[in-house]
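Please describe what follows:
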Amino acid sequence: MSPARRLRYCVNNEWRESATKKYMAVTDSSTGEVMAEAPCCTVEEVESAVQAAVAAYPGWSSTPVQQRMEVMFQFRTLLQQHLEELTLSVSKELGKNIEEARGDIIKAMEVVELACGAPILMQGDALMNVSTGHDTVMYREPIGVFAGIVPFNFPAMIPFGWMIPLCITVGNTFVLKAASLTPQTAMRCLELLIQAGLPKGVVNLVTCSRNEAELLLKHPDIRGISYVGSTSVGLHIYATAAAHGKRVQALCEAKNHGLVLKDAALERSALGIINSTFGCAGMRCMALPALCVEEGCADEFISYLVKFAKARKVGCAYDPATELGPVVSAEHKQAVIECIDRGVAEGAALILDGRGIVVPGFENGHFVGPTIFDHVKEGMSVGDCEIFGPVTSIKRVKDFEEGLAIMNASRFANGSCIFTQNGWYAREFVRRTHGGMVGVNVGIPVPISYFPFAGHKDSFFGDLHVMGRDGVAFYTEAKCVTSRWFGEEEKKEKTISTWEGTITRK
């Protein structure tokens, strides 16, 4: 076997070999083979990325927004042209099946398309004669250098969808800490962005450990941090970066719950929930891994759930027939298995066990089969904590109110769903659920790019979310300009009010 390819980092549109002695393995999740090694960039190399972004900011922010937008147009075209190449990259290094991997790229493209509307999205407000002779205009302006710290599970959508397109099109520059487990897709996306006409230093990319990334949280030249990952790290990033005067959006863990009522379309709902729960091998924060199921329909609903789960084809991620691919790494597989072990030890009923699954011809792949627990009680870790794998927990409830109370007791509130044909229950659920993204007979209520990805409680720290107008507001700041022009008589005024036209009442 030939040695794994050593990856590089990118500063000023140049791919540079790291001086580090430490490299991190990037595996083909279906085979376990090491495909490449990502450098653990040194502190000096991370600093060079920041300084490149600092140097690029004055020229890029002064570039007319139309020209910045044209880069996004070209980037979108290149993403479309290289869609299948990027799809295979995601599938290999992460383990998503082909359809899921293609969706990762397409979801990135959606936000790139949104960023092409920057000239409109950045428009402020204006009002003439706010008080006598005074006019006020509000502009939205870029801020400076932003840093993005991203997870492994969406190597295209998160950095090159949620973060970079809006950030740079409104005029900022960017330093990306790519995920060490899945860096190749992000690196290829950056190559295409450079090909689209991106000037030097506008986007820079490093891979490193948490120790080197800590520099970004306190760096005086970094104005904001966008983060996606665990809640414990998110809290640290939020507290540290905010204490150093930076704006932060930290998207963190989830334990999304669904509520299945007895009047739901049970078979169709089970099919949608299977897709939500086991899609991307459960490695997404909008999975639906916990279900509150009304007792009156629990047995029938669970029979559908088990039936559909057993039918899910587990296999090599880039086999077009595969419905459930591997998890990202051997370490992650072991962590998921340990969570299942804990569920058994806590007394939950394991009615479908995916721990021992083997895919012929891919015996070294990181596979976990569909796993379902029944009779999960409050306080059991399998029902309360994020597992990030293909594991579903069923909590039987007597009615709507008990189910809603259990859901709202969770410290996470990324998303929540209800399955019912009753309009009153649906409306009441929408009104009272703590979830920031709500589905009514929809298992994955992720909004399209025009709307924010709006997690709540311990699933999100910050004030402004990714995507939509929130994303534009996060990467810009308001500047209000009030002006007055004197007529000949006004030039002769001898007194000026202490409020100088800003109060209109006398």
About this structure: Residues 105 and 156 are 6 Å apart (CA to CA). DSSP finds 16 helices and 23 strands in the chain.
